[in-house]
Amino acid sequence: MELKATAKINLGLDVLRKREDGYHEVRMVMQMTGMYDRLVLTPLSKRGGIFLKTNHAYIPENENNLAYKAAKLLMDEFSVSDGLSIRLDKFIPVAAGLAGGSTDAAAVLNGVNELFHLGLSREELMERGGKIGADVPYCILGGTALAEGIGEKLSPLPAMPSCSILLAKPPVFISTKEVYGALRADSIERHPDIDGIIDALKRQELRELSSLMGNVLEDVTAPMHPVIREMEREMEEGGALRAVMSGSGPTVFGLFDDYDAARKCRNGMRKKYSSARIFLTEPCTGRE
Ligand code: ATP
Fold first, then answer.
1. Is 248 in the pocket of ligand 1 (CB under 6 A)?
2. What are the pLDDT digits (tens) for 44-79?
3. CATH number (domain holding residue 215)
4. To test the ligand 1 pocket, which listed residue (30, 53, 65, 177) has its Cβ within 8 A of the most ligand atoms?
């Protein structure tokens, strides 16, 4: 079974407060893109266990990989005696703010449910996904959605208007944990207008949506890595309606209503930032 695990961006990311348990309460507008990892799941009837191989040198191939964790969670619960081989080809940049690991886990939950005829509904899969990571339930739902709580309370939103999305991941390493650790949730100066973004989605107003996009984590990450704001400027000068950072970064994305301008900007940025990962895509549901 071959699966595509798509990457998300945050059209808006707000942090409301830090909870007593240390987690942050968020309000995020999530959007799937057409960038994806490819997974091939093969059931093994002659041997038990999970065997994961990836094309990526630095991500684990054991139970620390979220794809492995997802398979194990369902296979243990349903006492599946067959084994499973997972081939994971990563194209989504790792530790990039694109929920790469979470989306792999979501794809594996869907795949294992189908392969071994477990009969779980989407809601039941989402509930199990939440045990693996806060973004996993959204990655199962896909499309455009509002995520609240710690990211697990989801409400589907109208699909994003069609546009080109230029993604740029500079070659800097960011730890999500450190970014949230450095955020002072009670002294955030500029909160993005999440309700305004939702309203613009309802009215299919791409320009207005672009102008309202914002991410409170950018004020933590961007000062540490000036290339983030530099890339945003580059995209906006190249015709993006707006460019902001996704998740805890460092990936920057720009929205374009003109495909040719987006392509030209991609080509220019690939030349200028030869060690960055630059990719042109579009909104998608992540459910094909
Ligand atoms: P988020 O947007 O949810 O913060 P991210 O895109 O920043 O996610 P990931 O790419 O999911 O981050 O990876 C973060 C860490 O998780 C990496 O250090 C990596 O070693 C580990 N990891 C475990 N499983 C995977 C996987 N399947 N793909 C990528 N990274 C994985």
1. yes
2. 988 889 999 999 988 999 999 999 999 999 999 999
3. 3.30.70.890
4. 65
| Domain end residue (candidates: 156, 176, 199) | 156
Taking the centre of ligand 1 as the mean of its atom positions, its distance from the CA of residue 73, in whole angstroms, is 18
Q: Which two tokens stand for residue 122?
A: 């989407």
Q: Confidence class of residue 286 from pLDDT cuts 50, 70 and 90?
A: confident
Q: How far is the CA of 112 from the centre of ligand 1 (A)?
A: 20
Q: Report helix, strand or coil for 163.
A: coil
Task: Judge whether 287 lies within some domain.
Answer: no
CA atoms within 13 A on the CB side of 50: 24
Catalytic residue among 69, 104, 135, 169: 135
For position 36, what pLDDT does the model report? 97
Domains: count for the chain: 2
Peptide bond into 250 cis (omega under 30): yes
